[in-house]
């Protein structure tokens, strides 16, 4: 099995992670620090591979640069709210390791337009990011309702938001989760509403270069680890006490991870480092997107399978 990627990361001593040009809640900069949901999954991979979640370089990419940056090995992993689609996963020379969030596209509109539904819009001008599939999805949805629109394209999320704020556009179309964060960056968020309609399926997660099966497995099982840790009640705050108290769920999870560590070319204890340094899925979601964040998003379908959602990790056996 090809193991070039993990060898390169260990020799470098640092993970290179591709992120967005700045989407609040997902991957964005505060001063010199990168924060967000996608950022934390990059840190989780770094904790697993090099033992330190801070050993990571974030590289901000335009949408049209994302997949080529994997193919030419500019980045080792892509964590930038990229949607897994059939064509991308099959014909772009990349592979999506696993899904971290399930979302769908919607629109932000100016409250003073007096609309509460997409169906009330009349020939709107819509802000869109270049290099995404949003325009195709939006066109298909609006055509079903006899609505034509004009797309205005911007190269970065900031430019799209600024164009919308300047009223160059009536609406801004984006995935619901990041759009919730982008709304909060406007001077008066209450002057803007997100319509209730969702017009696409957007399963998103980290992607890697195709052809390195070992690296794909490493990233996949780091993601699954965060989900399983939430499922069995192991968190960054509880893990050490659970180990000391010989909690059976915590011990089973960590022993199962250690049992295959050599096959993944990871050091024993990698799972402990991920959970201790970054946390389980609940912790990652809540601090970036959930009730401990400004976004205040409910988990919805991103809740665990046992709590009415579709989030599910294969058994650690």
From TrEMBL:
GO biological process assignments: amino acid transport
Keyword Cytoplasm assigned: no
InterPro entries per UniProt: Bact_solute-bind_prot3, SBP_3_CS, Solute-binding_3/MltF_N
Entries under CDD domains matching the protein: PBP2_BztA
Keywords noted in UniProt: Signal, Transport
Highest taxon of source: Bacteria
Record's keyword annotation contains Transport: yes
Domain Solute-binding protein family 3/N-terminal: 14-231
Pfam family, one: SBP_bac_3
Similarity comment text for this entry: Belongs to the bacterial solute-binding protein 3 family.
PANTHER family the record matches: AMINO ACID ABC TRANSPORTER PERMEASE, AMINO-ACID ABC TRANSPORTER-BINDING PROTEIN YHDW-RELATED
Protein known as: Glutamate Aspartate periplasmic binding protein GltI
